[in-house]
Write a structure and sequence with these properties.
8-stranded antiparallel β-barrel, mainly beta, Porin, 58% strand, elongated
Length: 202
């Protein structure tokens, strides 16, 4: 995974040699939000289904040159997975901090990659989603899920002249989500999240 991250970063820096141009040379602040398609990847657990949720947060785009920007973000991100033919949803909400390297391929069109650090803030099981009384919140002390998660974020998007942007991003889990001192200590599972969003820069 470390090699994958290095390749992604080197590729982005190499892309700066392509004739490309960013929209602005001043620091911009913005808001963003959109849909999450979340799941987990694991060879130790049976099939799980995709969970639909959302992300919402703030970002700051810091131009390094006309072609390259650094974009830190703070997002509230709903993640997890569905199981038992979507009869139950295991929900894990995180405060995610992506640190994105961003390269403009042509005017408006960009690619991005970077590490993402997640801090779990809520965990619950929702049995028969949509019905009343089916939600069970899990206390941190009773949880099998770690409070901290790391990911590699890869994405692309388009930024319009008016500040509106459309983006697609994949967050690849790099660390096991399960704690080492629980019944699931020998189970290796990682978060896997697609994010499709809309942003606006000020």
């Amino acid at each position: 995974m470390k090699n994958l991250f290095l390749v992604a970063v080197i590729g982005l820096f190499s892309a700066t040699t392509i004739y490309a141009q960013s929209d602005d040379t001043t620091i911009q602040f913005g808001v963003k939000g959109g849909v999450n398609l979340a799941n987990i990847t694991s060879d130790d657990i049976g099939d799980s289904d995709q969970l639909t949720s959302f992300h919402l947060g703030l970002f700051m785009e810091i131009p390094i040159s006309e072609r390259f920007s650094f974009q830190p973000e703070v997002l509230y991100s709903g993640q997890g997975f569905s199981a038992f033919n979507e009869e139950a949803e295991y929900k894990m909400d995180y405060i995610q901090v992506p640190l994105m390297a961003k390269v403009y391929i042509v005017k408006g069109l960009y690619a991005e990659a970077g590490p993402q650090f997640g801090f779990k803030v809520k965990e619950e099981i929702d049995y028969k989603p949509g019905s009343e009384g089916g939600e069970i919140e899990i206390n941190t002390d009773d949880s099998y899920i770690k409070n901290f998660d790391t990911n590699l974020a890869l994405g692309a998007g388009y930024k319009f002249d008016n500040g509106l942007s459309l983006s697609a991003r994949y967050n690849l889990g790099l660390t096991n989500i399960y704690k080492d001192n629980t019944l699931l200590q020998n189970v290796d599972a990682k978060n896997s999240v697609w994010q499709f969003g809309v942003g606006f820069s000020f």
